[in-house]
Design a protein that fits this description.
CATH superfamily of chain B: Aldolase class I
Oligomer: heterodimer
Shape of chain B: globular
Number of domains of chain B: 1
CATH topology of chain B: TIM Barrel
Order of helices and strands of chain B: EEEHEHEHEHHEEEHEHEHEHH
Largest sheet of chain A: 9 strands, mixed
Strand order of the largest sheet of chain A: 2-1-3-4-13-12-11-8-9
Helix content of chain B: 25-40%
Radius of gyration of chain B: 17 Å
CATH class of chain B: Alpha Beta
Helix content of chain A: 10-25%
CATH topology of chain A: Rossmann fold
């Protein structure tokens, strides 16, 4: 399967290389691009993101990526802010986002706990989802975020920090993870491998 | 549960990992990439790299090694040293760092914290604070340019006021390095950390003083910090990270294995 055409969507965010390195460590080669033809020809796409929702959506609009990403039919994996942008609305940016999965991304209500939710936390996948093959419930992944998607019908893994929230989401060909699989040790590498083998 | 983090710190000078005692007399302890890889494999939750020469020499941290580290390790890491502008931070993040940490430049221009947080999000903006307890005046002072002893200055900031100030400007995490304890391995300053914890609503990382495993248990259980950073005990193999984590779990600390 390492002959697949793997593309990281160039969203203009700063941290594309850590995702690229993580894919390369699994033996895949990868292209970073925002060219519509390259995106169309991909077998698998990654939608990374770091920064603020507003800045990221501005980059999407500037690069004419909104409709392109919505229309993709191949598996797409959104990471962190990339996943949040897949939902319908961002409270952080007070703007509509891609809307390829359900729900609104809101500020986490964590009581006395610290924000951002930063560090390694345990997730609970729904039974038998292929994205979590060989990843047991209770595995730790690395999170860094202050906004989250509530658990809904598209949730495929949940996590808890002051409140339950969506750790991973999946609808049709769109998948998203709130954590950073590229920085989550062996469990993260397994998840990226699972995605590439979907 | 969110796990408490064990964070080896690698002080980098001229492309090598170094360690001094109380910020002085730096000795080379090894190459960056193999050490980073070893710590990741032993179970470190995160790594911090401080280019301790950068701010005081008016240089930007040498970038090539950031990319080499990002290629081989699969845990998060933070880069500090000489990040003075949005462009400096962007470059380090582009090379694959997950977070940037600013210290002296934030003291020189506190608005840098706001600008970085606006551009990159608070989650990747760490503020490092070098705090010194002055026995004469009984005050906690923030020091600047600590990478070079001859240029280190005492700022006008009291540690607690600076902790509040950086949070209001968008710091996503604070690393509090207690200079009195640095490299002497007699325990974290639990009193100071507990006082900072009370006013710190973002993740707080303790730094300075780790010498034995019990020091880690104490700083988590008594000062309620989110992470504990240490250097010499790991570089000199006084404490093995795997053994430390097993010990902490036995002490009731939430730890990732």
């Amino acid at each position: 399967m390492s002959e697949q055409n793997v593309v990281i969507i160039d969203t203009g965010c700063a941290n594309l290389s850590s995702v690229r390195f993580a894919i390369e460590r699994l033996g895949y080669s990868v292209t970073v691009s925002k060219d519509p033809a390259v995106l169309q020809a991909a077998d698998k796409l990654f939608l990374p993101g770091v920064g603020t929702a507003k800045e990221a959506m501005n980059n999407f609009v500037e690069r004419d990526l909104v409709e392109q990403v919505r229309n993709l039919k191949q598996p797409v994996l959104g990471i962190c802010l990339g996943m949040q942008l897949m939902a319908e609305y961002s409270q952080e940016g007070e703007l509509a986002t891609l809307g390829v999965v359900s729900g609104s991304v809101d500020k986490m209500q964590v009581g006395n706990l610290r924000l951002p939710h930063m560090g390694w936390n345990q997730i609970t996948p729904v039974d038998g989802h292929p994205l979590f093959k060989d990843i047991p419930a209770g595995s730790y992944f690395y999170f860094v975020h202050s906004y989250a998607l509530a658990v809904n019908d598209d949730t495929i893994a949940s996590c808890e920090y002051g409140q339950p929230f969506t750790a991973a989401v999946g609808k049709d060909n769109f998948y998203g993870v709130q954590f950073h699989p590229e920085r989550s040790g062996k469990a993260g590498a397994q998840l990226i491998k699972n995605f590439l083998e979907l | 549960m969110l796990a408490r983090r064990i964070i080896p710190c690698l002080d980098v000078k001229d492309g090598k990992v170094v360690k001094g005692v109380k910020f002085r007399n730096h000795e080379i302890v090894g190459d960056i990439v193999p050490l980073a890889k070893r710590y990741a494999e032993e179970g470190a939750d995160e790594l911090v790299f401080y280019d301790i020469t950068a701010s005081s020499d008016a240089r930007v941290v040498d970038k090539s090694w950031v990319s080499r580290v990002a290629e081989v390790i699969d845990i998060p890491f933070c880069v500090a040293g000489g990040i003075k502008t949005e462009d400096d931070a962007k470059r380090v993040l582009e090379f694959g760092a997950d977070k940037v940490s600013i210290n002296s430049p934030a003291l020189a221009d506190p608005s840098l914290i706001n600008r970085l947080a606006d551009k990159f999000g608070v989650q990747c903006i760490v503020v490092g604070i070098d705090s010194y307890y002055c026995d004469e005046t009984k005050t906690y002072q923030v020091k600047q340019f600590t990478g070079d002893e001859s240029r280190t200055v005492t700022t006008r900031w009291n540690t607690f006021d600076w902790v509040k100030e950086v949070q209001s400007r968008g710091a996503g995490e604070i690393v509090l390095n207690v200079m009195n304890q640095d490299g002497v391995r007699c325990g974290y300053d639990l009193e100071q950390l507990s006082r900072v914890r009370e006013i710190c609503q973002v993740p707080l990382i303790a730094s300075g003083g780790a010498g034995e495993m019990v020091h880690f248990a104490d700083v988590f259980n008594k000062a309620d910090v989110d992470g504990a950073l240490a250097a010499s005990v790991f570089h000199k193999a006084i404490i093995n990270i795997g053994e430390l984590k097993a010990y902490l779990i036995a002490q009731g600390v939430d730890i990732r294995l």
